[in-house]
Amino acid sequence: MKPVDLLIVGSGPAGMAAAVTARRTGLDVLVVDEQPAPGGQIWRDIETVAGTERGTLLGAAYLDGRRAAEAFRASGAAYEPGAQLWQIEPGFRGFVTKAGEARIIEARTILLATGAQERPAPFPGWTLPGILTVGAGQILLKNAGQVPAKPVWLAGSGPLMLLYMTQLLKAGGEIAGYLDTTPPGRLSSALRYLPGALRAVGDLFKGIAWSLTLRASGVRRIRHVTDIEAVGTEHLEAIRFRTASGTEETVQADALLVHEGVIPSVHVALALGSAVTWRDDQDCYVPILDAWGESSQPNVFIAGDGAGIAGAKAAALRGEIAALGIATKLGQITPEAAAEASKPARAKLERELALRPFLDALFRPREAIFIPDDETVVCRCEEITAREIRAMARLGRPGPNQVKAFTRAGMGPCQGRQCGYTVTRILAAAEGRSVEEVGFYRIRPPLKPVTLGELASLREPEATS
Amino acid sequence: MFRKLHDPGQAALRVYIDGVAVPAEAGESVAAVLLRQEAVWSRLTPVKGSKRAPYCLMGVCFDCLAEVDGVGSVQTCLTTVQDGMRIARQRGKRSLGA
Ligand code: FES
């Protein structure tokens, strides 16, 4: 049976655009996604929500997803929603579980379009029910049309925070207060990137417009918040916070949404052995890619926010460019044709990326979120505190993998997606080493938990077309 | 903790959480339904037995694990509700064969 030309993991802006372009070059394409519908997180439920009042409320950038999803559906790419990819073997053989059944998909090339996740920002009490991420709040608005029932507290920083607050108010939700954790002086350090950012001036205005809406709405905003603690036994009951000037306050709360920016999802890339590099300005790893999005592992391409945070428009452009690169590698088009065809996308991409250094500097998180207090739970799955990680560091100069073996941090179902960076940063600080030197967890399959029942259902490779 | 902005009307379904019938809407996730309940938690941690509720809603944190139609450790944020679905809050680890 014949392997597919291209297996795309993820059907957000990058995955969908790549599928459309790859199909146009004549490749046969299979797209798998663990989500139940196309759109990724940014355009979550776009196909069902676009035509409704909720769609209008979510705004123009959300509604952009409708055209992308239509083009994807019409592209002729095979599409499997609700499918979790848990291993890729060289060659390639992708192991996927769908509705309790596992199977193997053979593919000549792979495009990872797995997007971003919110940056884990642990603080005391952050595991209590009643606390969700802002991204989660926004997904609930898109997917279920729901908002916090009572006035909600928000804490953190970043463009998504401002966007969600604006959407929430428009929808009729109420905000009890916003604990703005953006450190003092960020605007002035961001200003040197302003000339570049001005090239993306439309988006910049959008950012300013959000802030204006919030100001006009009279939302209580407490600036320069440095420490947050969630108090409660079985559910969030109160939030204690302190500002840079030393003011302390405790407020009653039953809901708190937190956000400290987004980082690329690099788990699958790491498991495949694709090289990553540490980005100091973004406080995260990004994959090392060539001009076509190919990683250090031949025939493994990466596009979208998983290739480095740049937003939905850039994601789609990178998806398009990667698809042209893949088509060239598979001999479907000539390098000259690919170079020519990628020109418009590259020009647009350059404009999109021009805004990033400004945003990165403006919303760079405060140092404290990377190196939490002793009491703070670092690994949510195994309930390991920062104290336990630091105690390990005192016993020698262990790396993340030794810490994992001894404490079980990173061994739970999330596989270090929540604690990986924090463990690395704590070790680096405690051992006086650089983040790069300390390194990250070795990521091993399965990438998602698999049951024995699912393994037993595993069938040998089958044709997908 | 959360409330719906609209009446599901035609799309209204019914699911059971720990045996109690609750309204739901076609297309939404099981986690979204949980978050509208009086008790929003989805599972007890296997280590310390502390309560957890859906946190990220995008498949990253695994705090939304619950038993759905007899299958343990299902990520409820990635699972769309079906009429008559039976959801049970999960107490500790699932058995290996589940
Ligand atoms: S809520 Fe995080 S994985 Fe479902």
Walk me through the structure.
Chain A is built from 18 helices and 22 strands. Chain A has 465 residues and is α/β, with parallel strands linked by helices. Chain A folds into three domains: 4-117 and 263-333, FAD/NAD(P)-binding domain (3-Layer(bba) Sandwich); 120-260, FAD/NAD(P)-binding domain, CATH 3.50.50; 370-438, BFD-like [2Fe-2S]-binding domain (Arc Repressor Mutant, subunit A), CATH 1.10.10.1100. In chain A, strands 1, 2, 3, 4, 5, 6 and 20 form a seven-stranded mixed β-sheet that branches. In chain A, strands 8-16-10-11-12 form a five-stranded parallel β-sheet. A three-stranded antiparallel β-sheet of chain A has the order 13-14-15, with no helix packed on it. In chain A, α5 crosses α6 (159-171). Chain A starts with a strand and ends in a 9-residue tail after the last helix. With 98 residues, chain B is mainly beta. Chain B has a domain at 27-91: Ubiquitin-like (UB roll). Chain B is 5% helix and 35% strand. Chain B is built from one helix and eight strands, in the order βββαβββββ. Chain B has one helix spanning 30-34, and strands at residues 2-4, 12-17, 20-25, 43-44, 51-52, 65-68, 71-75, 86-91. In chain B, strands 2, 3, 4, 5, 6, 7 and 8 form a seven-stranded mixed β-sheet that branches. In chain B, a hairpin with a 2-residue loop joins β2 (12-17) and β3. The longest helix of chain B has 5 residues, at 30-34. The mean pLDDT of chain B is 92. The chains are: A alpha/beta (465), B mainly beta (98).
